[in-house]
Amino acid sequence: MSAGLQHYLDVAQRFQAEQAETAPLWLRALREEGLAQLSRQGFPTPRHEDWKYTDVAPIVSRGFAPVGAGRSVDLKARVEQLALPGPRLVFVDGRHSPELSSLEGLYEGVTVKSLRVAVREDAEALEAVLGRRARAEAHPFTALNAALLEEGAFVQVRPGAVAPSPVQLFFLASGAGAAPVLASPRIVVVAGENSEAALVELYAGVEGGASFTNAVTEVVLGDNARLHHYKLQAEPDAAFHLASLHARLSRDSSLTSHAFALGGALARNEVYSVFAGEGGECVLNGLYVGHGTQHLDNRTDLDHAVPRCTSRELYKGVLDDRARGTFHGRVLVRQDAQRTDASQTNRNLLLSEEALVDTRPQLEILADDVKCAHGAAVGRLDEQALFYLRARGIPRAEAERLLTYAFASEVVGAVKLEPLRARVEQLLAGRLPGGARREVGA
Prior knowledge:
It is globular and about 70 Å long. It has 10 helices and 20 strands. It has helices at 3-19, 25-41, 57-62, 76-82, 115-121, 123-127, 140-147, 383-390, 396-412, 418-429; strands at 88-92, 95-96, 110-114, 152-157, 167-173, 181-183, 186-191, 196-205, 211-221, 226-233, 240-249, 254-261, 266-275, 281-290, 295-304, 310-319, 324-333, 340-350, 356-365, 370-379. The longest helix is centred in the first third of the chain and has 17 residues, at 3-19. The chain has 2 domains: 3-277, no CATH class; 382-442, no CATH class. Helix content is 24%, strand content 37%. It is α/β, with parallel strands linked by helices. It has a 10-stranded mixed β-sheet, covered by helices on one side. α1 (3-19) packs antiparallel against α2 and α2 (25-41) runs antiparallel to α7 (140-147).
């Protein structure tokens, strides 16, 4: 057993021993299963097929650990910079911050609580869904998250409720202290039948100490429920970020996900979606923009388990300097999933000779009455388009900037929340050729 794995096992064992007397039995069982699975699986290496292009050794060897409950950091001004109109929960270094959070304006059909509070107040509802979609045995980092289950958010949307404002979840790394900080948020979203809501996950931070965010989001949609999910990851370039979204779609339900990966030394974003009822629709849009030596990894897995469901995927990557991006998309159409309509597209733009991308779109079709397509492309800026712009007096740097933004704008333009779209555009401007590098909130 490596020293790195032993460190995380020791951290989890100490945490579980400290929490043993106060945790309900069902939560203790989830934590213990996570610890057992992590010990059994160990951390992946590039020899594992799913991690062939992503080496997590820098995370394993750094010795990240959760911060104590008594830590206090003043980030009020930072939160005000980030906030969109509407209710929000704020977490600093993985711990809920009531003083920075505000649920003012929360729609009456929506309940939002920190996971710690929900364990006490909504134990029955939470027990029915927590750990059901994101199972510890499926993934070593999901197992680590389960082993340290304590904090996060619980969002419930009442059947028939249509929430006018998005629920915002902010996860901030303070950069305070010398020790490398581990945050393990677990987000649980339950949307009742005929409901509609929007959820924003925002990950940011302050330059300073090293941080590792290991986030897991579980989504359960009732019949004809609709969830618009937005994720903006713009942590400092020295941060590490691993996250997964696990969704179950019921009959005629709809999940639309917009994921933006702009920060982090190493960031991996995974989406797993299962169609459990006919007529479901899943739309996945993603944009990853890397510079320097950033490594941005994207994995999607759509399981068409029942007939007459639709999925659409569009992921785009923009990579400069020596950045590396990966995309691995899998669409599984099971034998009984007739009348499936699925498309998957990954396009990448390389802005330097040293930038690199690995793309693996994948279809597994076991049914015969389907409409499925997939494709991938990797290229550079169009020299003819650059010549056209320069012939009209536009300097080359600005021409490259305009063409790069045009490439990315298809994904950015799909964001319906105008304040969030403006925030993404601002951050993207700082990542394009010639732009000053910006953190979120700058």
